[in-house]
Amino acid sequence: MAGPLTRRRLLGTLGGVGGTALAAGWAPVAFSMTAPAATKKTRQWAMVIDLRRCDGCKKCTQACQETHHLPQTFEWIKVFDVKDTSGASYFMPRPCFQCENAPCLRVCPVAATFKDDEGMVLVDQDRCIGCRMCMAACPYGARYFNYNEPPQYDNPFGHPTPEFPVPQQKGTVGKCMFCVHRTEDGVLPACVEACGMNALYIGDLVEDVATNGVETVRLSTFLKENDAFRYKEELGTGPRVWYIAGHGQLLEG
Amino acid sequence: MERRAHERYIERAMWSIGRGDRNFWIAVLVLGAMVAAGIYAWVYQIQRGLWVTGLNQKVSWGFYIINCVFFIGMSYGGAMTSAILRLTNAKWRAPLTRLAETTAVAALLVGAVYPIIDMGRPDRFLNIVLYPQVGSPVVWDVVAISTYMLASLVFLYLPLIPDLATTGAALKGGKLQRIYQLLALGWKGTPGQERSLQRGIGIMAVLIIPLAVSVHSVLAWLFAVTARGGWHSTIFAPLFVLAAMLSGVAAVILVVAAFRKVYGLQEFITAKHFRYLSYLLIALGVGYLYFMVSEYLTEGYLLEADTTPVLEAIFIGTYAPAFWTFTTVGLILPLILAAIPGRFPIGRACLASGLVIGGMWLKRFLIVVPGMAEPVMPWDWGRYAPTWVEITITIGSAAAIPLILIIFFRFFPVMSVHEMEEVEHEPERRPTLQPSFAEGAGK
Fold first, then answer.
1. Mean pLDDT (whole number) for B400-412
2. Topology of the domain covering B3-421
3. Which positions 165-194 of A are in contact with B (Cβ < 8 Å)?
4. How far apart are the C-alpha atoms of A192 and A185, rounded to whole Å?
């Protein structure tokens, strides 16, 4: 068999061997969510986080919680205070990594998690059954389950959507989605806008640009020149978030 | 079996049918109250939401997933014990199969409720049927568990058919008799019917083994397909299957011992039966120990970044008391108890089984919780302590198994009458696979 081994192919092969042709027949439901839209110019969102600048103020977390009307315990972008084995100390904000090959997406039993045209991993909270398999599968702990009744909010767009899941639905899972309700209007994500240190960049892989709201950079050059890395890249999840290290900490990835 | 013993067997097997003495009602009341408390806790949780549990953003699976694996696992032991004994034509199986098969169904009914208890939106359960994403291990589980449930119900029902006819005939008229006759599907014991029944049971005995293996394998893959330390292991599926059989055989031993004592089956279920079941327990226990060593050695030798914290927590950290209790008291000690020959074979088999069951619950805890609490971002450990809701539901569900059993045996023979008669004729019809094992060893 020529070509790289993909999960779809593996499952298809196993399915064929096992006589469950069903798997192959159903696979498109799960795996072909990324077909580009023909009419609109498609963006492929990415984020760059400059760890040299982050001072751990957590304004990004607060802005996120305000925008999405989340309780305090929901840190869709969470700032970790890291002390690594080399003795270095630094802050590390962690949004959802919007993985190309998202583990949370493929374990969802009802396809409530899906990927939009712009590579964003979204959750349809109208369909989610709350089994929390995605939380077990996410290697970054980016998903949050609504154990309690979420803060109520009158959504100006009517019913909550995967792009703007506000208010959150009790008994379902939610997570960061790079503020697609803002980026589609050309507005910076709430965390990027709120960052006083300009440590967060939102970018587009298609146009190869990224901006923190103050300066705009050529994305590929910026990543290369600064030796950017992706967290736990070895897992093959293909995160859409790059980190720039600079405090002498051990490089991950 | 001589004629008088034959009659006594039938008398004992049917003893509990329609019987409602004081002990029965006390047992129903006590167990029923425990189950009711569990149901109350579940309703309480449905009304308020999962925040009433100890689950949190880090440890989002806890008691419910542990119990799901635990009870479904227990079910396999019953099914496999019965299937293996049938396939190997073990002659001593006759008084055991009914108890084993019923235990399998009862434990499965309880275990299969747990995924629903665990769901944030149980009202949307049908979404799994409406929008199934076949790449998801959760869907594999739903398919496998429901297939296995159907199979184990059939596996219980088929050998029951002749007994239903017998029981129905023993009743003197009334609506109940009609129901028995209806369920007996017009069984008259003709050679043609016998042949069909034997074929059916034979097919089910063969089918139930791969089905049982598949269910626990997909339950294992629920964990093993993730990138978590301690979960992402290739040995998980066989390890889970072995764990299931081990705890299941232990459950069968306990159930058989309890019914033997209370229902007065001592004449037919003897120390020999417990010795044979203990052999099974030992074989499975040693196998489990071997798998476990293989798992921890390969992971612990390499000490990869994501597995190290879990192994540390299990071997020397927070979960070390639980782990070493499981290993010594829950696995090695029961094996010794069951293996050494000597006095009190039944008592020792029961003690060993009780320890194994407790140990296997602990082991499931040690799989689920440290794997969840492990920092996926390497700096924050999760914590988990169950609340009264989870504990009450757990106790209630455990009580449901004996409750289902005693109610079931109020209506159906506790030992298969037909099976006994069939086994008696077996040597003439066809040779057993291990005649020495079947007849000689126990004497």
1. 92
2. Formate dehydrogenase/DMSO reductase fold (1.20.1630)
3. 170-173
4. 15
